[in-house]
Amino acid sequence: KKFYLNLYNEFNNPKTFKKIFKFVQPELDKIEERQKNKKYILVNIKNKFLTKLSKFILNMFNISIVKIGFEFSLIKDGCYIPLHTDKTNKLISLMIYFPHTDENKSINEIDWGTCFYKIKNGKEKNLELWKSSFMDEIQAANYMKNLEKFYQSKFTKNKLVGFLKSKNSYHNIEKILKKNALRRSININYYIQ
After folding, report:
1. Which terminus of the chain is less hemmed in, N or C, by CB atoms within 10 Å?
2. What is the pTM of this model?
3. Based on the number of CB atoms within 10 Å of its own CB, is 185 exposed (0-12), middle (13-18) or buried (19 or more)?
4. Residue 31 C-alpha from the chain's centroid
5. What is the Cα–Cα distance from 99 to 187, expressed in whole angstroms?
């Protein structure tokens, strides 16, 4: 649809990325694994050779090339996204929520937002994960003993939620319990190439 194409083009625009990056840069500078690269640029090069050449040249100046990921997310009843901290090449994650607009909307849809966790006070730093993958139920249960939920975004119409990938950017989507449910969102991710 034209709406989604316009949305994609807006977020895939270097000017938009520059504004987002300027907003998050102070926090990005605090992430140890991101401190070597002080600049990031969004490019739309389709040729693999030119991409590799640009990446090689820009890396000499500590500049990283960023590409966009744009995906539709549909989560059905009984499903969830396990606890994780995201891939190492993910820089910024943004999500736009699209709850149902019909009159049969359940009040518990508001609880379908992304859950964010932090390490409990006094717990060891060895819980930090830079290299991350989705945890199985046993791994997640072990981690959850040492984590506490500090925020759950409300799953409300046209809400934009975002965060930076870090060693402790723990997040998940809890199991959707409503029968015949469909949680809809668009995920916009900026990746380092």
Report:
1. N
2. 0.87
3. buried
4. 15
5. 14
Q: What is the pLDDT along the chain (193 residues), one digit of tens a residue?
A: 899 999 999 999 999 999 999 999 999 999 999 887 778 888 877 788 888 888 888 888 888 889 999 999 999 999 999 999 999 999 999 999 988 766 555 556 778 999 999 988 876 667 888 888 888 888 888 888 889 999 999 998 888 999 999 999 999 999 998 888 899 999 999 999 8
Burial 139-170 (b: 16+ CB within 10 A, else e): ebeebeeebeeeebbebeeeeebbbbbbbbbb
Instruction: Kindly state the tokens that stand for 3.
Output: 């709406």
Number of alpha carbons in the 13 Å side-chain half-sphere of residue 176? 22
CA pair distance 155, 61, nearest whole angstrom = 41
Query: Which residue has tokens 């989507």?
Result: 173
How far is the C-alpha of 159 from the C-alpha of 50, rounded, in Å? 36
Alpha carbons within 13 angstroms on the beta-carbon side of residue 153 total 21
